[in-house]
Model the fold of this input.
Amino acid sequence: LRTLGAGVQDSKSLKEFQSACQRMHSAYFTANHGLVLYNEKQKSSDGYNEADYQELYDEQGTLLSRLPNWFIEQGLKFDGPISQSIALGILGTMYMSWEVIYRSRIAKELNANPDSIKSDIIGDMRLVRNIIEHRLHVTDKDIAKLKEIDWLEPGLILLRSSDMAKILARVNSMKIRIEQ
Done:
């Protein structure tokens, strides 16, 4: 294990990764608030009835879905199911941008093997992403492996805006290390 000095934490590629994550989080935050505004607009429109249905069609006119307004209303709430789906997508994109782009750039700056570049927040993002995607949001013993995202409890994991803000704060102050 080689601990990196303060100068390495100021790596150009690390700063670019953090900036990319900030932009992703801003998109998530804006979408979460936009869902609420859209919901309020829908509910205040003339003729709105909670019991009515909304239908979604493709370009050819084929019905894709028919959902009751009350169901859509639940999905459009702040930190509701649609927001949580967006949060998962953002978390996955943050993690994959590290794996595909930034980890190798940082390794090149440090003259190291990309697989040797490690960060606890990235490891936690990987684990949370895998739990949500492969275990349908349910965790138990693996939650104890988290080092940075340490506020999650065993059971059902739902990513809310407060979770995403904490994750971004950890990314903004993340430390990297080289493990040989």
Observations:
- The first strand starts at residue 2 and ends at 3.
